[in-house]
Design goal:
By secondary structure, the protein is an alpha+beta fold. The protein folds into four domains: about 100 residues, Immunoglobulins (Immunoglobulin-like); about 325 residues, TIM Barrel, CATH 3.20.20; about 90 residues, Sandwich (Immunoglobulin-like); about 90 residues, Macroglobulin (MG2) domain (Immunoglobulin-like, Sandwich), CATH 2.60.40. Helix content is about 20%, strand content about 30%. Helix 7 links the parallel strand 15 and strand 16.
């Protein structure tokens, strides 16, 4: 009897404690905002109380997103539902007595998207299945063409930013890298955006000012609307006290203030298309620094519902994998900074190291040379290095082609002196910009990055792998020639001053056509090797400018689309056997691996290296043309061919019979 009496009483009491919000309606991937009015005015809202929203989708999927203080008694939770249907939410608060923040429930009706915004149509960014590049949510490849506008957040007016975004959208840029506050100036007072709002309230680093972030909301929303993700740096690394940076120590944030900023930023942009860049232009050498930035990353990811990609921005001539274990779970892709040296070798060295890491992670050169900045960042007279020229478009082209073709397959980030620091006459920038941001927008290098993007997209860059093993020689000798290939194309970049390049035969493909592409204007010319009657193909560029050599080819063996991946490594018997003058060798790869396949004589001496490259899983094929390493006909007789992968080695015999 008591049970029958108490049950409805408990339900009544529970319903009195639960607030129900009116139903909301939005479209898939469109941001919806849940507004809450607190019953309590907290002395320090960022520290004194936390709010979360638990969202449950139509198929039972769940997301937890933090709310953020929006000034006065207002709290908000931002959410972009990933699927169509009815979503339900329920809030929780650390202050369980605040019934307007705690246990508020509601419904969101999510309809199909009807607009034209790219991210809403295709879904937010994610890592590809093979962990080599990025894709939209629907799986379509995403070539990162980024631009650097670090200081736009506080130095720009809305109409200036809109004009800049329009230009970058027209040129095909799809990522803008910016800093939430400033990466050069930080103060608890005096540093304000163009609407007059300071970064912080009450001269307190732990009190982020919601009204400052209103303008940042405008910038991020405007970029997203144009199909551009925003790569946000919440806190420049040197502005945390652990880094002891003499430039910022007077204004550096302590651990608590830093983590509160991470949580606030994550919650505020949970419904936007953003990428989190942790740290900024620094080394993360000590265990304490690494643990702090790990905590910072986890804080911002948790606050935003674990929905956004995250990486680390390192100092010049360094990579994220130099400081953080490659198995670090919160690093979705690696960044490196080849810095501002024309013709430097870190462009391809870091890309090569990153590509060869295991487990595999995508790699991006997030800061290469900036157009019109001084080589090595030095001003004339500030260094004994006489090379104090300014960076020109050809240096930018070289840095980015080298990075991508060496394995940094995410894409590239451009930068221009005058834009990155948002140089204005009333707010001048450092590093001696010659023109203001609105003039720097028209530097020729930015349009040439549009051409780079088109070349890469037209030739399935995301399926490419570095192919330096194909290089036979270059004139002048010693110059680095980046090259990569997929099942349809071999792409070779020749920097300025190359007289000729010679390529070995690739025994896995049949070469079909040759083309020169001018990377400064996209013009294409027919290409022909100097000699076509020899296995070594030598090409001379049309002039001494830089050029892209594109060779189309087809595989000697086509693995059927949709075929099952082999369960084990296997080396098949060559066909035909006996043979003269050539034969086909097939082999199975159950998983991606570096592959060596070579021919030896019966005394164990190398006759010909057929394959020496990283290959994806599947059934692969290579032909032996009966030639030796010096491209002389091999003698009749029995030969051994040996397959070596990361898993095992296998050997078979074959007979060359003339």
């Amino acid at each position: 009897m008591w049970k029958k009496f108490l049950q409805p009483l408990c339900i009544l009491l529970l319903s009195q404690q639960m607030a129900f919000a009116s139903a909301l309606q939005t479209e898939r991937h469109q941001r919806v905002e849940i507004s809450l009015e607190s019953t309590t005015a907290y002395h320090h809202p960022h520290r004194d109380v936390s709010v979360q929203g638990l969202f449950t989708g139509p198929a039972g999927e769940r997301l937890t997103i933090h709310g953020y203080w929006d000034g006065d008694l207002r709290w908000k939770i931002r959410f972009a539902p990933p699927t169509i249907g009815e979503w339900r939410y329920r809030t929780t608060s650390s202050d369980t007595t605040n019934t307007n923040l705690h246990h508020v429930e509601g419904i969101i009706h999510v309809l199909p998207y009807t607009g034209t915004e790219l991210f809403a149509l295709k879904g937010p960014l994610k890592v590809s299945e093979n962990n080599r590049y990025l894709t939209y949510g629907d799986g379509d490849p995403f070539f990162w063409l980024g631009d650097t506008a670090w200081e736009i957040t506080w130095k720009s007016f809305s109409e200036e930013a809109e004009g800049y975004f329009d230009d970058r959208q027209q040129k095909g840029f799809n990522v803008i890298q910016i800093v939430v506050m400033s990466h050069q100036f930080l103060d608890t007072f005096g540093v304000r955006n163009r609407t007059g709002e300071p970064f912080f309230l009450n001269e307190d680093f732990s009190m982020a000012n919601p009204r400052y972030f209103d303008y940042l909301d405008t910038l991020v929303t405007s970029a997203n609307r144009r199909g551009m993700a925003v790569a946000l740096v919440p806190l420049w690394a040197g502005m945390n006290i652990l880094h002891n940076d003499v430039r910022y120590q007077r204004f550096a944030l302590d651990r608590e203030a830093s983590l509160l900023l991470a949580r606030y930023t994550g919650a505020r942009y949970a419904g936007h298309n953003v990428v989190w860049i942790v740290g900024g232009d620094n080394a993360y050498k000590t265990a304490e620094q690494q643990q702090f930035w790990t905590d910072f990353a986890l804080e911002i990811r948790q606050a935003s519902g674990e929905q956004h990609l995250t990486s680390v921005h390192p100092k010049g001539l360094a990579a994220s994998f130099d400081f953080f274990n490659n198995k670090t779970a919160w690093i979705d892709f690696h960044m490196y900074q080849s810095s501002h040296t024309a013709g430097g070798n870190f462009t391809y060295q870091a890309a090569t190291r990153g590509f060869n890491l295991n487990p595999v992670r995508p790699v991006l050169n997030s800061e290469a040379v900036y157009e019109d900045i001084y080589h090595n960042l030095w001003l004339p007279g500030d260094t004994k290095d006489v090379s104090t020229f300014r960076i020109r478009p050809e240096h930018i082209r070289q840095a980015n082609y080298e990075s991508i073709l060496a394995g940094a397959l995410i894409g590239m980030t451009y930068g221009a002196n005058g834009i990155w620091q948002w140089h204005k006459k009333d707010l001048p920038g450092t590093h001696a910009p010659r023109v203001t941001f609105d003039q720097a927008i028209q530097f020729p290098g930015s349009a040439q990055m549009t051409i780079l993007k088109k070349i890469m997209e037209d030739h399935a860059w995301y399926r490419m792998k570095p192919a330096r093993s194909v290089l036979h020689g270059v004139s002048p000798s010693g110059r680095y020639i980046p090259m990569a290939q997929n099942d349809q194309y071999l792409m070779v970049y020749l920097p300025i001053g190359i007289l000729s390049v010679s390529l070995k035969p690739d025994l896995t493909v049949k070469r079909l056509d040759y083309l020169w592409i001018n990377p400064s204007n996209g013009a294409a010319l027919s290409a022909r090797p100097v000699r076509q009657d020899h296995p070594i193909l030598t090409f001379k560029p049309p002039d001494q400018s830089d050029w892209v050599l594109l060779i189309s080819h087809e595989s000697v063996y086509t693995w059927a689309d949709g075929a099952e991946i082999p369960e084990s490594t296997n080396l098949h018997q060559n066909y035909p056997n006996p043979f003269n003058p050539e034969t086909l060798i097939l082999y199975n790869l159950p998983e991606p691996s570096h592959v060596s396949l070579a021919v030896y004589n019966t005394r164990g001496r190398l006759v010909r290296q057929l394959v020496d490259a990283f290959q994806d899983a599947g059934i692969r094929g290579v032909r032996w043309d009966g030639l030796t390493e010096v491209y002389k006909p091999a003698a009749s007789g029995v030969y051994l061919y040996r397959l070596v992968t990361a898993q095992q080695a296998k050997t078979r015999k074959m007979l060359l019979l003339k």
